[in-house]
Amino acid sequence: MTDIPPDILPDDEAYWSTIRRQYSPSPDFINLENGYFGMPADPVRAALVRYQDEVDRDNALFLRTRWPERLARVKALLADFTGAAPDELLVTRSAVESLNILLQGYPFGTGDAILMARHDYDSSHDIVRMTAARRGLDVVQVDVPHDLADEDALVALYEEAITPRTRVLLLTHIVHRTGRIMPVARLAALARSRGIDAIVDGAHALAQLDYRVADVGAPFGAFNLHKWVGAPLGTGLLYIARERIPDIAPLYGDVTFGRGDIDKLGHVGTIPPAPVLAVEDALAFHARIGGRNKEARLRWLARRWMDGVADVPGVRLFTPRAARLHCALGAFGIDGVPAADVVRRLMDEQRIFTVVRRISDGEGVRVTPHLYTRPEDVDLLAAAIRRIAS
């Protein structure tokens, strides 16, 4: 394990400015849409170039003689970071690929049911419904109000939706629409108590929140490394508890590995090694900051703009106000102004880039700062929201 860095206050600008200087965002606009994928820090970007040069220069010699050992090192570092064992992890290209592997390879029987939430990721909905149509499954969808802060009531919604045919409970750790942090450990425990498997979509949670994957208590998990871990685009992670690996059938054809070997699920052909190798540098950069410090800073930036507009007439915050229920991601709407118009005006008038996301039966504007975001950037956003709402 890496040494734990000292606690840094989230508003210690002397410290956070040193972190900000290790990123190179575009000077042409303020990017507050970092939820799509996270910009790697400059040391990670430089490492990616070095690795790509090495792979291109040494060609097949690298892939045939060095790549297996280097990949094993990355998996060992990811195991240390997540709390899982190396043989329970598979590096994928994204959380979506990980979810496809899990859901399409799961041993469903005809008539089994999958329970998911309306707020889950759109691609997750697609995977579930496609798998259900092919396998003769039922899909049950629970609607969790975006402003439901009562954890007991939230868990009760899932509990009431479980039927004797429910086989899988799909859980989102951080809701990509609003930033709401879900009580996944409690929901995974609920699933276990009913003999149901929980599959956790941790696409936004890994390295945005300071936690260990194994502590959630779910046998299956899908994650991105190119969001908050800060690895290059095109890197994801799949977690399967060791004893459950034999239950998942390969999505991609492979007869090389045994039923209990997670590598049986990763035969996608020749992949670019450089982004995967740079995961090591991303983890090192994250470790120097510290997960607890990073989470606190991201939450502080989000709260700064949300607190700046919370009392503005006509502005609706779709993100729970309690700090424990959100981190970097937040969302808002302005009465009478379509979300797309708000996004357009923010970009046209202030060069602030945000994105529209569907929330319940309407739409909201999602705002996602990053470690390179300045306090004055979110202050400018808050001021712009107040002007649009006036």
Map the helices and strands:
Layout: H1 13-20, E1 30-31, H2 42-82, E2 89-92, H3 95-105, E3 113-117, H4 122-135, E4 138-142, H5 151-161, E5 166-172, H6 184-193, E6 197-201, E7 220-224, E8 236-240, H7 273-277, H8 279-289, H9 291-309, E9 315-317, E10 330-334, H10 339-350, E11 352-353, E12 355-359, E13 362-367, H11 375-389
Parallel strand pairs: 1-11, 3-4, 3-5, 5-6, 6-7
Antiparallel strand pairs: 2-8, 7-8, 9-10, 10-13, 12-13
Helix pairs in contact: 2-8, 3-4, 9-11, 10-11
Short description:
Helix content is 40%, strand content 15%. By secondary structure, it is of the alpha/beta class.
Features of the shown structure:
390 residues; alpha/beta; Aspartate Aminotransferase, domain 1; Aspartate Aminotransferase, domain 2; 2 domains; 7-stranded mixed β-sheet; 4-stranded antiparallel β-sheet; 11 helices; 13 strands; 40% helix
User: How many structurally independent domains?
Assistant: 2
The largest beta-sheet arranges its strands as 2-8-7-6-5-3-4
Q: Characterize the largest beta sheet: strand count, sense, and whether it forms a barrel.
A: 7 strands, mixed
Principal-axes geometry comes out as globular
**CATH architecture assignment name of the largest domain:** 3-Layer(aba) Sandwich
* CATH C-level category of the largest domain: Alpha Beta
Structural class: alpha/beta
Strand content is: 15-25%
Q: Summarize model confidence as the mean pLDDT.
A: 96
Rg result: 21 Å
Roughly what percent helix?
40-55%
The number of distinct helices, counting runs of at least 4 residues, comes to 11
Number of extended strands = 13
